Amino acid sequence: MTTLAPGTDTLTRDALTVLQPGFTGTTAPDWLLRRLGEGLASVGLFGRNIATPDQLAALTAQLRSERGDVLVAIDEEGGDVTRLEVRTGSSFPGNHALGAVDDVELTRGVAFELGRRLAECGVNLNWAPSADVNANPDNPVIGVRSFGADPALVARHTAAYVDGMQAAGVAACTKHFPGHGDTGVDSHHDMPRIDVGLDVLHARDLAPFRAAIEAGSRAVMSAHILVPALDPDRPATLSRRILTGLLREELGYDGLIVTDGMEMQAIAGTYGIERGSVLAIAAGADAICVGGGLADDDTVLRLRDALVAAVRAGELPEERLADAAARVRSLAEWTSAPTGRTPGAPGGVPGSGGVSSDIGLVAARRALTVTRGAYVPPVAGAPVHVAAFSPVANIAVGDETPWGVGAELERLLPGTTTGSYTGPEAGAQALAAAGEHRIVAVVRDEHRHAWMAAALDTLLAARPDTVVVEMGVPQASPRGGLHIATYGAARVCGVAAAEVIVGG
Predict the structure, then answer these.
(1) CA spacing 20 to 30 A to 493: which of 119, 249, 339, 501?
(2) Residue of 236, 153, 222 lying closest to 194 (CA atoms)
(3) How large is the angle between the packed helices 359-367 and 104-120, nearest 10 degrees?
(4) Which pLDDT tens digit goes with each residue over 53-92?
């Protein structure tokens, strides 16, 4: 346990305790260690903080040398959203692939193995899983991060994921309450709005959160979305009706409520992060996530001082802040006490003898959907040209994580070339670059990008034997000589697709 710096009053300690800030670099800066000594209880890690598992373990050990019960959080969904393997791509398929397989024991096993790797590195809070029902296929930010569009399927896999993650000793944080799936706007950029009635919300969006609560999810993350049927005035993160009235009182949730990143424009661009943080704690949130973009001591001090000033001005009840801080400390206590968790691994994949270290690749292979067109010769030993039609990545995914099948096909088929194309000339450019080579076209959410669909039109008109690999939501109709849907762009999804391409 930490020894608090002398002179740190209770109010200031509580204000620091409810913050989950980030930082830059692969070692903890002096300012962060100092704040841990003053009462800060959580730290959020991002891809910029991680180089290798050994380095990550050394970093978390450095944090714990200052505060033994610190909560070390990360946004590690697996699949497209990975921080642990940000530079290589994930060893685990994401939610959409797991939902496509629809084997809850597989989902539980994947979550356990992912949690085990996080725990080995000293991470004890994972901002996952996404429990959003992907009701809007044009959703720009959820997509393959969702288990699917069916509420019952999403609910059972959310519960299985929570079970597996927490059996590994890592607290799950189910997100984005009350459901971010039916949006056409990314809350990183603006305020999404969901205009459906209470009956739809309860039957569709809230079902997975009820399952997560029943499964014992230790944390829930709020969404920066406006849901007028629940609160016409304030987004969920700032709404007492939603966080306290609905989540706490109606659904009976008693764990930690964490906000989504407060520097996201849905909050920062409307309320500002200081005012937003005060309103979030007042509404019922217990922890303020900040640090994806703003990652410095000044941000921590600004938010700490805003919370202290709000209490002193009578705008934020001191008891509410104290209650929030107590919930943070309670979760920290849970992560420090292995006897409070379910011992051992879940059952794993039937017939596999338990959870195996290659369960991610097993899951990716099982998720594949293969659609064959008119007969075309298989891709044998000859090199191919991989044309990756690359959309702009949303902020949650990031553009630093590699995706596709190019690297694996280059290994399996020496001489294979790869190009990345975008925009109205993408198809013609890919044709020109391919020359006489067979083409493998890799797309991500073809149905959401008219230029991408047009590029495939161009390729298939000239080269009907083109292999198409869809690594997003497979909403568009399969086409091409061979069409492979991977339900996500994790590294293992690319490996599984390449195996099929080469295997014929």
Answers:
(1) 119
(2) 236
(3) 140
(4) 999 999 999 999 999 999 999 999 999 999 999 999 999 9
- CA pair distance 500, 498, nearest whole angstrom: 5
Q: Would you state the torsion angle of the CA atoms of residues 70, 116, 103, 145, taken in this order, to the nearest 10 degrees?
A: 50
Q: How far apart are CA 102 and CA 150, in angstroms?
A: 11
Which residues does 436 contact at the CB level (< 8 Å), separation at least 6? none
**Distances in whole angstroms, Cα of residue 179 to Cα of each of 154, 195, 214, 346:** 11, 12, 17, 27
Query: Phi and psi (nearest 5°) for 418?
Result: -135, 140
Tokens representing residue 295 in the block: 């990652």
Residue 251's pLDDT is 98
Local structure of 484: helix, strand or coil: strand
What is the number of other CB atoms lying within 10 angstroms of the CB of residue 97? 32
10 Å Cβ neighbour count for 6?
A: 7
Q: What is the pTM for the complete model shown? A: 0.93
Over the range 134-150, which residues count as b (16 or more CB within 10 Å of their CB) and which as e? bbbeebbbbbbbbbbbb
Considering the candidates 176, 188, 385, 483, report the single residue annotated as catalytic. 188
310: which residues sit within 8 A by CB, 6+ positions away?
Answer: 278, 282, 316
Cα–Cα dist 162/107, whole Å? 10
Active-site annotation holds for 54: no
Nearest to 53 by CA among 126, 119, 128: 119
User: Which of 231, 260, 286, 445 does the annotation list as catalytic?
Assistant: 260
Per-residue pLDDT tens for 343-352?
345 544 433 3
Output the DSSP codes for 434-464: HTTSEEEEEES-GGG-HHHHHHHHHHHHH-T
CA angle 105, 108, 109 (to 5 degrees): 85
